[in-house]
Amino acid sequence: MLREYITVKNESIGEIVVKKSKFIATIKKVETVLKATEELNKIRETYKDASHNTYVYIINDNSMYQKYSDDGEPKGTAGLPILAVLNHNKLENILVVVTRYFGGTKLGVGGLTRAYSKATVNALEKVTIVEMKRCLNVDLSCDYHLVGKIQSKLKENNIIINHSQFLEKVTFHITVKADMVSKIEKDIIDLTSNRCEFKIIEEVYREMEL
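Structure (tokenized):
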């Protein structure tokens, strides 16, 4: 069974300057550890002249996996503050890399912690947060004279018809949120006096903006 989770829909970059040190936060959606590592290496290459490329990634691939690095900053001043922001927002399948160009002035433990947190928040404000909802692809097959009734019922429940087939019978291919499947099936059965075949095909994810 697919597990619902919250993640980012798009990439973003946020930038702040603290006492001449530049902090650049890059956010990417990643769904495997391998993809997170690949994207991390690309960002490191892009900012290879930076003082630090600290990072966090959180992957939910059947089991939860998270990793963070201070990349030479004092222990606990970079990776953990970034991780705290992501955990506060309950985000998964995400990579955040915060690049620092040292400006010549030491910020201290508190200053670094605040800077890495603030840079992460700045980048998060520029992305779209989505919930990956567990849904089911369903095929509805019926006789032609029932088409209008079924289309009206689907529209009433804000269910979009992905596509239709018009053969000996009409088949509507739809996607329904998992927690609505039982209701929709009962509604269709009642509406058509059980003259419509309701067949669950597969589980899928659908993005729902928060």
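The chain has a mean pLDDT of 95. The first helix runs from residue 33 to 46.
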